[in-house]
Predict the structure.
Amino acid sequence: MITKLAAKSLIDRRGSAILTCIALLISVFVLLGVEHIRKESKNSFSSTISGTDLIVGARSGSLNLLLYSVFRIGSPVNDISWNSYQRIANDRRVEWTIPLSLGDSHRGYRVLGTNESYFQHFSYGKDRLLTFNNGRRFESAFEVVLGAQVAQRLDYSIGQKITLSHGLGDANFANHAELFQIVGILDPTGTPVDQTVHVSLQGIEAIHAGGESNTDELIPKQTTAVLVGLKSKISTFQLQREVNENQTEALTAILPGVALSELWNMMSAFENTLRLISLLVFIAALLGMCSMMAASIRERSNEIHLLRTMGASPWFLFILFEVEAILITLISVAVASGLLLLTLLSANQFLSSNVGLHISPNIFTLNSLAIVLAIFIASIIVAAAPAIQANRNTEF
Amino acid sequence: MNSVSSIIELENVAFNYDRNAVETEFLVNHWSIHKGEQVFIHGASGSGKSTLLNILSGLLSPRSGKVMVLDKRLDKMNRKQRDAFRAKEIGIVFQRFNLIPYLNSEENIRLAKYLSGESSSDLSAEITELLERLRIDEKSRSKPVTELSTGQQQRIAIARALINRPRLLIADEPTSSLDYANRDGFLELLKELTGKEEITLLFVSHDHSLKSHFTRSQDISEIMLDGAST
């Protein structure tokens, strides 16, 4: 009965109720959205790579190296010579290496030249290795393995032939283009691997050589970055120092974990600002609801008096006003969650293909549940003021 | 007067709106009403009649004195008890704002039942019977009360006040917003319903001409003067 009364009363004052709802809705949307994206991007970032002890690239900042080698964002400053790669790969402390040759693209997706050790050793998340949804690894220069998203978006399947072009342009045709056959499609990983077109190092050479070239002559002359796995973690810093102090070539070696948290820290100021703003928006919306209710109590003084004479206790009135506030909050949270879900679903493609962020549209996590709970508690507390005010008017 | 058959009995009742006031604003020494009486109280606005009615209905608590309504000492009750007592035992009809505007007629009546805390096995039938006696057609039952005429609204207000079968009905200027033709009909209906159910009726108005409808009539100043002089 009390809920029905509260609902009908809100419907009766739908003009101001809807406005209050919208204000609250926007703030809840922002609050939940910021928290969700913050958490998801952190997850996405830190699960992009695992098991790799060092990333080696041409001399540059560690963030730059991390971004282009792992996230495929930005461009490498320089390549590293094949000799340097060989020296690292043959070091007695090194267990495995994965060469990464970047700089080409296929219809907007980055092409990565690597070797079979990529499929053996590259891991993401909690030490998960890459698995094939269909097909196999590349075995010759003109075979290609697609990331899950590439295959899905471009509607490619095993056996199809595609052209890979030199450079990063989103071109369907190019002068330097070679026909490659799709031999494998990977399972989705939720990392930039999904948006990568994998070819062998020879394949990369073929793209660069252009025209007719003999497969046997396609010996890699350089690579862009190297992921290094060590036999023992103890030698990590030692090898890192050696690479950084290398006299023959200017190289940089970074620890992915350290670089990832550096990247994350860089964003935390921005992230905290966003949180603060969303919190302030929420407080403003709550105060808006409070003032809406306070105003309504003045215009409802007759109704309040009538309820009192009908025998409604002050407690009943208090609950009535609280239920109204809870209903407004409930509608706002429900609509905001729905909107956020829709927004994430539609923005997911854009974010993953343009920013390399993988944001799960599943917003119903324990964290957001806690936020929703806090929102309800806050609105109940804020509504208490006008609810008490309602009773004061009837007391003498 | 015989206190056993008294339905209302006030003795040495003093009240102040301002808790810290020295002078008493409202004072009744002795006043009582018998069971089943239909009493007309005449009083202009500002004469203290609202205070009297609020004390009788337990909305206000006197500073001192004895307030006996339906054999219950209201002055000895706490606020919660008075609220429950009012919901169950007293029906109140005002001049205006008798109904929650965003509920329909039936919902208003159901709300009154709900607030009394009592349940009914067949509330729907009870409402139907009551509305029939008040000559309200079936259509108006589910209409928003704002779409009803003032006369209809006042009759729904009676239904709302009577649904809990109160033993006392307080009517505070209920006819003042009605036109002349509606007024007499409304009064007769009110008397008929309360008479049949042996509900004591306390009718307050500034309009002297209504006095003839009642068996007993008193001026508010007499009630208060009575106290002041003794």
In short: Strands of chain B lie at 6-15, 26-34, 38-42, 64-69, 72-73, 90-93, 168-172, 200-205, 216-219. DSSP finds eight helices and nine strands in chain B.
